[in-house]
Amino acid sequence: MEPPQAGQVVVIGSGLIGRSWAMVFAGGGFKVKLYDVVQQQITSALEYIRKEMKELEKSGMLKGTLNAEKQLSLISGCMDLKTAVDGAMFIQECTPEKLELKKKIFGQLDLIVNNDVILSSSTSTLLPTKLFTGLKHVKQCIVSHPVNPPYYVPLVELVPHPETEPSTVDKTYALMKKIGQSPVKLTKEIDGFVLNRLQYAVISEAWRLVGVRMTNYCERYREGMIHVLKTFGPVPDFSGEIEQQISQAMSERTPADPEHLNARRAWRDECLMGLAKLKKQMKSN
Ligand code: NAI
C-alpha cells in the first residue's frame, strides 16, 4: 500500500532555492504547491524538477521512499496565493533577497492564513525582527535558512523571532528532520546567523591573503558581508568560560575515552573517504 501523503507545503518563489526545496518536501511525501508571480518560472521549475528527479532515480540518489513519478505527482504550480495556501501546514518563502518584497509577501500571507500554519523564510541575511515584527501571526513565523542547493546540502539554520512560539521552532525542527535535512536551532537572531558569520570570516581572510575570483558573489552579497563583518567582536582570547562550555559540550557529544573517540574517528574517516571518492569521480568526468 502507498504511504499516505504527509500534508501540504507551499513554496513561494520557484527560483534556484524554491525548486530545490520543492524536491526536498516531495521526497518527504508532502504535497507541494509551487507559487510564483512569473508563469515561466513555474514552468521551467517543473521541467527542471522532472529532469533532476529522473536522473536522481537512475543513479539511485533519489531521496525518500516514493518513486520519481509519485514524487512528481505531488508537486504542482500555482499563481494564486490564496489557492496555494489553502490547507497548507507549512509555507517556505523563497523570493529574492529584498526586505520590502518579503515584508509585502508576509503581510499578504498574514491576512489569509489560519492560526496553525508555519510561515518560514529562506532568507540568507534578513533578521526575523525585520521580516516579521508586527504580523498578527508572528508566533508562527521563523527563518529556515538553507544552503544552496538544499537537496544536496542538508544543513538548515532555524532562527526564531523573539515572539515565535517554541512550538513553531519544534515543529519546524521535526519537519526538517522528517524530510531528511539537518536542522540547527539558533536561540536568537544574530546578523549573518551562524553559517554566514563563519563563511564571511573565511572569505574575508582569503580576500586579505590573495583576493579571489568572485565577481558575481560580491555583487550579490557585498553589502551583507560588510554589514555582518562590522558586527564581529574583538579578537577572542580562546580561554575562560566559553572554552569550558565548548569543551563540556564536545565531551557530552563524544566522551573522551578511547572507545568513543575511536568510533568518532572511524565515522569521520568514513565521511572523508566518501568525499574523496566523490571528488575523484568528479575529476574523471
Ligand atoms: P531566485 O532569484 O533564483 O528566485 C526567486 C524567485 O522568486 C523567482 O522565481 C521570482 O519569479 C520569484 N518571485 C519574485 N517576486 C515574487 C513574489 N512577489 N511572489 C512569489 N514569487 C516571487 O532567488 P534564490 O537564489 O532562489 O533565492 C531565494 C531566497 O533564498 C533568497 O532570500 C535568498 O537569500 C535565499 N537563499 C539563497 C541561497 C543561494 O545560494 N541562492 C542560499 C540560501 C538562501
TrEMBL record:
- Start and end residues of each 3-hydroxyacyl-CoA dehydrogenase NAD binding domain: 8-189
GO BP annotations listed: fatty acid metabolic process
SUPFAM superfamilies in alphabetical order = NAD(P)-binding Rossmann-fold domains (SSF51735)
Q: What is this protein called?
A: Crystallin lambda 1
Reading the lineage from the top rank, the first entry is: Eukaryota
What GO molecular function terms would the record report? L-gulonate 3-dehydrogenase activity; NAD+ binding
| Organism (species) | Chelonoidis abingdonii
Task: State the PANTHER family in the record.
Answer: 3-HYDROXYACYL-COA DEHYDROGENASE FAMILY PROTEIN, LAMBDA-CRYSTALLIN HOMOLOG
Give the InterPro entries listed for this entry: 3-OHacyl-CoA_DH_NAD-bd (IPR006176), 6PGD_dom2 (IPR013328), NAD(P)-bd_dom_sf (IPR036291)
